[in-house]
Write a structure and sequence with these properties.
Strand content: 5-15%
Number of strands: 2
Number of domains: 1
Mean pLDDT: 92
Largest sheet: 2 strands, antiparallel
Radius of gyration: 18 Å
Shape: elongated
Strand order of the largest sheet: 1-2
């Protein structure tokens, strides 16, 4: 139970950070090219300024599920540490 809890505690956070940093890298490349990143279309726009839309607002199900999986992993870790091995 402890091993499963540790996997559920750590893996969703790593996946969430990977998705966030991947998108941030794309946005930075667009800004370095002199454009403005369109978050709704997920494309670089050279026309005008686009409003900023936070990652959690654009991907609420993904963010909430990864946080829920991490919380479940935390509970599994607590249960695994509390109950003795047989």
């Amino acid at each position: 139970m402890l091993r499963l809890g540790l996997i559920l505690l750590i893996l969703p956070g790593v996946v969430l950070m990977g998705a966030f940093w991947s998108e941030l890298n794309t946005v930075n490349e667009c800004l370095a090219a002199g454009g403005s990143y369109n978050y709704t279309a997920q494309a670089c726009d050279m026309q005008g300024r686009q409003p900023f839309i936070p990652f959690a607002l654009r991907n609420p199900l993904f963010v909430n599920l990864t946080m829920l999986a991490s919380a479940a992993g935390f509970c599994c870790c607590l249960f695994g540490l509390y109950v003795r091995r047989r």
